[in-house]
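Project outcomes to date are best conveyed with an example. Our students and postdoctoral researchers have been running inverse folding experiments weekly, and each run begins with a structure described purely in tokens. The record below, which covers 157 residues, was selected by the lab manager from last quarter's runs and is presented without edits.
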């Protein structure tokens, strides 16, 4: 089997998408199943403003995570899903950075498997997820551009 750059990018985008699907479905459903704990963690957040939106965020964040996972599952909406994943990871990373660098104290972590990580480790992991989202967006946009060029060239013949 011959691997071209195009095939490698295609498989990389699919792998990145599946990883985000696993992450967001797991995180979203964990937050919904442990809703009281997630709400309490948000409500007890030392960052200014989180308490005021804890009720909305306790439902909104997991729903958004599951929605982004659904967008990533279909090829036609994958680019939108990757942008959504990128935005969510930027927001989550900003929150973790706020806890690390601004907060007067560090609260207990979110729940699920992430409780095994320190806040610094969580920050590094989030940076890796951001980089994966960027890579997926770049690769998918290149593929879309090549497909459009191929379609235009085909129509001109």
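After processing, the design step wrote out the following sequence:
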């Amino acid at each position: 089997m011959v691997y071209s750059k195009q095939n490698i990018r295609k498989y990389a985008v699919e792998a990145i998408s599946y990883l985000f699907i696993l992450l967001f479905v797991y995180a979203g459903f964990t937050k919904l199943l442990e809703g009281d704990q997630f709400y309490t963690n948000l409500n007890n957040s030392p960052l200014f403003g989180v308490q005021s939106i804890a009720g909305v965020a306790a439902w909104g964040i997991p729903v958004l995570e599951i929605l982004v996972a659904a967008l990533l599952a279909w090829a036609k909406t994958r680019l939108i899903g990757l942008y959504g994943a990128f935005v969510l990871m930027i927001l989550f990373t900003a929150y973790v950075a706020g806890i690390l660098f601004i907060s007067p104290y560090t609260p207990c972590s979110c729940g699920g498997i992430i409780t095994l990580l320190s806040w610094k480790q969580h920050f590094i992991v989030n940076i890796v997820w951001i980089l994966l989202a960027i890579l997926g967006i770049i690769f998918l946009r290149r593929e879309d551009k090549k497909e459009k060029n191929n379609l235009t060239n085909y129509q001109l013949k």
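The chain is about 75% helix and 0% strand. The chain has a mean pLDDT of 87. The training component of this project remains on track.
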